[in-house]
Amino acid sequence: MHRISHLFTKMISNSQIKFIRQLSMKKYRQRSGLFVAEGPKVVGDLIKAGLEPHMVYAVDSYIPPVGLLSFQKVTADELCRISFLQHPQQVLAVFPVPQTSCVMEGKDSSSAVIGSGLHIALDGVQDPGNLGTIIRIADWFGINTVFCSLDTVDVWNPKVVQATMGSIARVKVVYTSLVDIFNHTNLPIYGTLLDGDDIYDQQLSAQGIIVMGNEGNGISHDIRQYVTKRLLIPSFSVGNSAESLNVAIATAIVCSEFRRRM
Predict the structure, then answer these.
(1) Are 123 and 179 in contact (CB under 8 A)?
(2) Mean pLDDT value across the chain
(3) For 134-249, where are the E strands, in sequence order?
(4) Band of the pLDDT at 105, cuts 50, 70, 90?
(5) Out of 15, 62, 159, 175, which could bridge 128 as a Cys pair, Cβ 3.0 to 4.6 Å?
(6) What is the pTM of this model?
(7) In angstroms, rounded to a whole number, what is the distance separating the alpha carbons of residues 61 and 74?
(8) Cα-based distances in Å from 100 to 64, 173, 175, 192, 236
(9) Where does the pLDDT of residue 106 fall: very low under 50, low under 70, confident under 90, or very high at 90 and above?
């Protein structure tokens, strides 16, 4: 069994609690270069990916993964005080934001190399749960890069990190101007639109960029003009039906159909 070389117990201080709770806000994450991850699965996957935690807080029952050499033992009540979850999951870790996390705000994004294969581009997705789930979907379907518009919710938001269920360790997320990305690629650009063509009747390439839009407004006008392949996920309901699909569910359907054709 893997042994922990440095396990220490002390009461967590009010300043530690305050600092961790502040990491729920983007400005403090940007200032410190740190983010919060919770639960054995998420924390374990990040450590397995080579990310070294700044600090780890865990209860007695926590079984640490190989590679974690020290953590601060806390009580269940103390974990509740620092956790962002309704039901804390044994461990909370503070990690440095990876160097591979790329933000190219105000710069020419042509410097971002868009390789072959399938990519996802998110245009103004606002819900943390949706972004986290989309990253998890990308991981499942073997999509290594997700491009996000600058107004998309921050990937290091604790709710986003939690919703990825560890996939954040394997999928690169790039915040940039989508227009710059589209202007410097020859890949087909697919977008889901209400006036699109039935996805099940269309030719789909093994390479391209799949654009998914904002929860309420869909793909913005500025981005819509760059879409070269307009797709529609048809409804099979007879009579009244839901007005639209959740963006994460729609992403899963589109990615599945692309991969099914391979």
Answers:
(1) no
(2) 89
(3) 145-148, 172-175, 189-198, 208-213, 229-232
(4) very low
(5) 159
(6) 0.88
(7) 11
(8) 25, 8, 11, 29, 41
(9) very low
